[in-house]
Please model this.
Amino acid sequence: MIKSIINEIRISIIATVCLALLLCGIYPALVWAVAQGLFHSQANGSLVSVKGQVIGSSLLAQSFTGPGYFHPRPSAAGDGYDAANSGGSNLGPTSQKLIAAVQERATAYRTENRLAPGVAIPVDAVTSSGSGLDPHISVPNAFMQARRVAEARGLSKEAVRERVAAHTEGRTLGILGEPRVNVLMLNLDLDGKL
Model:
Protein backbone atom coordinates (compact mmCIF):
# COMPACT_ATOMS: atom_id res chain seq x y z
CA MET A 1 0.00 0.00 0.00
CA ILE A 2 2.72 2.50 1.00
CA LYS A 3 4.80 1.35 -1.97
CA SER A 4 1.84 2.08 -4.25
CA ILE A 5 1.35 5.57 -2.77
CA ILE A 6 5.06 6.38 -3.16
CA ASN A 7 4.92 5.19 -6.77
CA GLU A 8 1.88 7.42 -7.44
CA ILE A 9 3.64 10.41 -5.86
CA ARG A 10 6.76 9.76 -7.97
CA ILE A 11 4.65 9.58 -11.15
CA SER A 12 2.82 12.78 -10.17
CA ILE A 13 6.09 14.64 -9.56
CA ILE A 14 7.58 13.47 -12.86
CA ALA A 15 4.39 14.43 -14.73
CA THR A 16 4.32 17.87 -13.05
CA VAL A 17 7.96 18.56 -13.88
CA CYS A 18 7.57 17.37 -17.49
CA LEU A 19 4.39 19.40 -18.03
CA ALA A 20 5.98 22.46 -16.40
CA LEU A 21 8.99 22.21 -18.73
CA LEU A 22 6.77 21.67 -21.75
CA LEU A 23 4.05 24.25 -21.02
CA CYS A 24 6.10 26.88 -19.16
CA GLY A 25 9.33 26.62 -21.11
CA ILE A 26 9.38 24.81 -24.44
CA TYR A 27 5.94 25.84 -25.75
CA PRO A 28 6.26 29.59 -24.94
CA ALA A 29 9.78 29.62 -26.39
CA LEU A 30 8.54 27.95 -29.56
CA VAL A 31 5.62 30.40 -29.93
CA TRP A 32 7.97 33.34 -29.31
CA ALA A 33 10.48 32.08 -31.90
CA VAL A 34 7.78 31.52 -34.55
CA ALA A 35 6.24 34.95 -33.84
CA GLN A 36 9.62 36.70 -34.04
CA GLY A 37 10.47 34.88 -37.25
CA LEU A 38 7.18 35.22 -39.11
CA PHE A 39 5.45 38.23 -37.53
CA HIS A 40 8.29 40.30 -36.09
CA SER A 41 6.57 43.70 -36.21
CA GLN A 42 3.24 42.47 -34.84
CA ALA A 43 4.90 40.38 -32.11
CA ASN A 44 6.67 43.50 -30.89
CA GLY A 45 3.59 45.74 -30.74
CA SER A 46 3.43 47.07 -34.33
CA LEU A 47 5.57 50.01 -33.27
CA VAL A 48 5.91 52.97 -35.63
CA SER A 49 9.30 54.67 -35.74
CA VAL A 50 10.32 57.93 -37.35
CA LYS A 51 14.06 58.55 -37.72
CA GLY A 52 14.81 55.75 -35.27
CA GLN A 53 12.48 57.05 -32.54
CA VAL A 54 9.34 55.14 -31.61
CA ILE A 55 6.37 57.50 -31.76
CA GLY A 56 3.48 55.10 -31.32
CA SER A 57 1.85 51.86 -32.31
CA SER A 58 -0.42 51.35 -35.27
CA LEU A 59 -2.61 49.26 -32.94
CA LEU A 60 -3.25 51.93 -30.29
CA ALA A 61 -4.92 55.31 -30.59
CA GLN A 62 -3.25 58.43 -29.35
CA SER A 63 -4.53 61.94 -28.96
CA PHE A 64 -4.35 64.37 -31.86
CA THR A 65 -6.03 67.68 -31.06
CA GLY A 66 -4.78 70.31 -33.48
CA PRO A 67 -6.98 71.46 -36.38
CA GLY A 68 -4.43 70.16 -38.91
CA TYR A 69 -4.78 66.58 -37.68
CA PHE A 70 -7.41 63.93 -38.01
CA HIS A 71 -8.82 63.13 -34.60
CA PRO A 72 -9.36 59.57 -33.33
CA ARG A 73 -12.45 58.22 -31.63
CA PRO A 74 -13.10 59.58 -28.15
CA SER A 75 -11.40 57.52 -25.45
CA ALA A 76 -12.80 56.16 -22.20
CA ALA A 77 -9.39 54.77 -21.19
CA GLY A 78 -8.24 56.59 -18.06
CA ASP A 79 -7.46 60.22 -18.78
CA GLY A 80 -7.70 59.49 -22.49
CA TYR A 81 -5.76 56.98 -24.58
CA ASP A 82 -4.10 55.53 -21.46
CA ALA A 83 -3.28 51.90 -22.30
CA ALA A 84 -2.82 51.10 -18.60
CA ASN A 85 -6.51 51.93 -18.06
CA SER A 86 -7.95 50.40 -21.21
CA GLY A 87 -11.67 49.87 -21.15
CA GLY A 88 -14.95 51.27 -22.28
CA SER A 89 -17.27 53.41 -20.20
CA ASN A 90 -19.66 50.47 -19.65
CA LEU A 91 -22.59 52.88 -19.94
CA GLY A 92 -25.72 51.47 -21.57
CA PRO A 93 -27.84 53.14 -24.26
CA THR A 94 -30.34 54.46 -21.71
CA SER A 95 -27.67 56.01 -19.49
CA GLN A 96 -28.26 59.76 -19.10
CA LYS A 97 -24.51 60.23 -18.59
CA LEU A 98 -23.79 58.56 -21.96
CA ILE A 99 -26.55 60.50 -23.73
CA ALA A 100 -25.20 63.79 -22.36
CA ALA A 101 -21.61 62.90 -23.34
CA VAL A 102 -22.64 61.95 -26.88
CA GLN A 103 -24.64 65.17 -27.27
CA GLU A 104 -21.70 67.23 -26.00
CA ARG A 105 -19.29 65.44 -28.34
CA ALA A 106 -21.68 65.88 -31.30
CA THR A 107 -21.92 69.62 -30.67
CA ALA A 108 -18.14 69.92 -30.40
CA TYR A 109 -17.62 67.81 -33.55
CA ARG A 110 -20.07 69.91 -35.56
CA THR A 111 -18.48 73.14 -34.34
CA GLU A 112 -14.93 71.97 -34.96
CA ASN A 113 -15.71 70.72 -38.48
CA ARG A 114 -18.14 73.56 -39.29
CA LEU A 115 -21.10 71.27 -39.91
CA ALA A 116 -24.74 72.35 -39.89
CA PRO A 117 -26.78 71.36 -36.80
CA GLY A 118 -28.82 68.74 -38.67
CA VAL A 119 -25.92 66.95 -40.37
CA ALA A 120 -25.70 63.29 -39.36
CA ILE A 121 -22.41 62.45 -37.65
CA PRO A 122 -20.75 59.02 -37.84
CA VAL A 123 -21.27 57.18 -34.57
CA ASP A 124 -17.53 56.58 -34.12
CA ALA A 125 -16.99 60.35 -33.92
CA VAL A 126 -18.99 60.64 -30.69
CA THR A 127 -18.67 57.25 -28.95
CA SER A 128 -15.60 55.54 -27.54
CA SER A 129 -14.63 52.03 -28.53
CA GLY A 130 -14.83 49.04 -26.21
CA SER A 131 -11.15 49.37 -25.32
CA GLY A 132 -10.98 53.15 -25.53
CA LEU A 133 -7.87 52.71 -27.69
CA ASP A 134 -9.20 51.96 -31.18
CA PRO A 135 -6.64 53.39 -33.65
CA HIS A 136 -9.13 53.59 -36.53
CA ILE A 137 -11.97 55.85 -37.56
CA SER A 138 -14.61 55.19 -40.18
CA VAL A 139 -14.14 56.49 -43.70
CA PRO A 140 -17.17 58.84 -43.38
CA ASN A 141 -15.68 60.25 -40.16
CA ALA A 142 -12.37 60.89 -41.94
CA PHE A 143 -14.09 62.54 -44.91
CA MET A 144 -16.05 64.84 -42.57
CA GLN A 145 -12.78 65.97 -40.97
CA ALA A 146 -11.02 66.43 -44.33
CA ARG A 147 -12.11 70.04 -44.92
CA ARG A 148 -10.84 71.19 -41.50
CA VAL A 149 -7.51 69.43 -41.98
CA ALA A 150 -7.12 70.74 -45.53
CA GLU A 151 -7.78 74.35 -44.49
CA ALA A 152 -5.42 74.15 -41.50
CA ARG A 153 -2.62 72.72 -43.66
CA GLY A 154 -3.23 74.90 -46.71
CA LEU A 155 -4.04 71.88 -48.89
CA SER A 156 -6.94 71.23 -51.20
CA LYS A 157 -9.77 69.13 -49.83
CA GLU A 158 -9.30 66.72 -52.73
CA ALA A 159 -5.62 66.19 -51.85
CA VAL A 160 -6.52 65.37 -48.26
CA ARG A 161 -9.34 63.06 -49.37
CA GLU A 162 -6.82 61.25 -51.62
CA ARG A 163 -4.59 60.70 -48.57
CA VAL A 164 -7.59 59.34 -46.66
CA ALA A 165 -8.33 56.96 -49.53
CA ALA A 166 -4.68 55.86 -49.62
CA HIS A 167 -4.82 54.97 -45.92
CA THR A 168 -8.20 53.26 -46.01
CA GLU A 169 -7.94 49.63 -44.94
CA GLY A 170 -10.52 47.21 -46.28
CA ARG A 171 -12.53 44.64 -44.39
CA THR A 172 -10.49 42.04 -42.53
CA LEU A 173 -10.31 38.89 -44.67
CA GLY A 174 -12.60 40.72 -47.10
CA ILE A 175 -15.72 40.15 -44.97
CA LEU A 176 -15.17 41.22 -41.35
CA GLY A 177 -15.79 44.75 -40.09
CA GLU A 178 -16.01 47.91 -42.12
CA PRO A 179 -13.42 49.86 -44.12
CA ARG A 180 -11.43 52.05 -41.74
CA VAL A 181 -8.63 54.59 -41.57
CA ASN A 182 -5.66 54.38 -39.19
CA VAL A 183 -5.41 57.88 -37.69
CA LEU A 184 -1.72 57.69 -36.69
CA MET A 185 -0.56 56.53 -40.12
CA LEU A 186 -2.70 59.14 -41.91
CA ASN A 187 -1.43 61.99 -39.71
CA LEU A 188 2.17 60.86 -40.14
CA ASP A 189 1.69 60.82 -43.90
CA LEU A 190 0.27 64.35 -43.79
CA ASP A 191 3.31 65.44 -41.76
CA GLY A 192 5.58 63.89 -44.42
CA LYS A 193 7.06 61.40 -41.94
CA LEU A 194 6.18 58.18 -43.76
The chain is about 45% helix and 10% strand. Residues 86 and 125 are 19 Å apart (CA to CA). The first strand starts at residue 47 and ends at 50.
